[in-house]
Amino acid sequence: MYDHGYEIQNVVEPDADRYELCDPDTEKPEKGVSPLVWETYDRYLEKHDPETIRQVSEGDLLTPDSDIQVLAPPDEPETVTFTSPETGRRNTLKPTGANANSLAFKTEGEQSALFMGDVEDTGGLNGETWMMSRHDSEENDVSLDADILVLSHHGSNNATSEEFLDRVDPDVAVISSGLHNKHTSENENDAHPHDATLEHLHDRDVEVYWTPGHGRLCTDLDSENASPEPTTDLDTTDAADIAALKYYCRAHDVSPDRIAALTPDHLPEATPEWVADSAPMLVETPEEIVDEAITNAETVEDVRHTPDAHDQDVLLGL
User: Which of 100, 113, 233, 276 meets the CB 3.0–4.6 Å disulfide criterion with 148?
Assistant: First the structure.
């Protein structure tokens, strides 16, 4: 980024627990990044004037001359105690939880966008619940309501609860994750974004843009009717379709943007019933897939990447 002219103005420094190479008790390499990654981060950070880098927290603007409001983490250095808006119980948000204390911010234009970073609720670390309590409080002007929601933690089921979505009420959700990420739940193909998160979005008719399928996304927040612009040809933004693509493409190692349609038989056995019942891209017969592919394809090679061509090595003569 530095070599391409970007300037670093705000930094969330990695917590030691997230980059240590092994667990101090078991000495097993269960987590952490390599020394090379950390040394590179440290070296490039030194290229910037330390006086231009600042720590931000709730209530700050991300940059002094912007309208980007920082909503998290708290500006308290110690454990924060608050009342859960859902249960009425006293909860805590400890400063040691790296994800729960992630940076989250909101920008306003003709459209608003909420960027949730890695904020999550898991293992007693109540980052998302704390943000909801701030939204609900009449003592501050925090509002989670946004047109576009960039989901926390790559669509993990440790965040983006139904209660949270009710407060944000987004029209569009953006999910950034890798197709073959290893963060699975009950089955090997339910990785980020998790099924539970996609189902919450589906139930609310939220349009979903997913980076493995839609690629890099751009949008103009100063345009009232603008939507994220994909850099691929994937048309669907239905959450059930995104779930179907996740299952099929992980099982068959094919890029989601190459799939025009699927039949229920193409889906792995573990695919949730709500996906098989409601995904608009599912058709009844392989012939319909070929018809769909021919309609949307620009080249013979595109047609060859239909599920049947992929699975059965069918070469279509056009």
Answer: 113
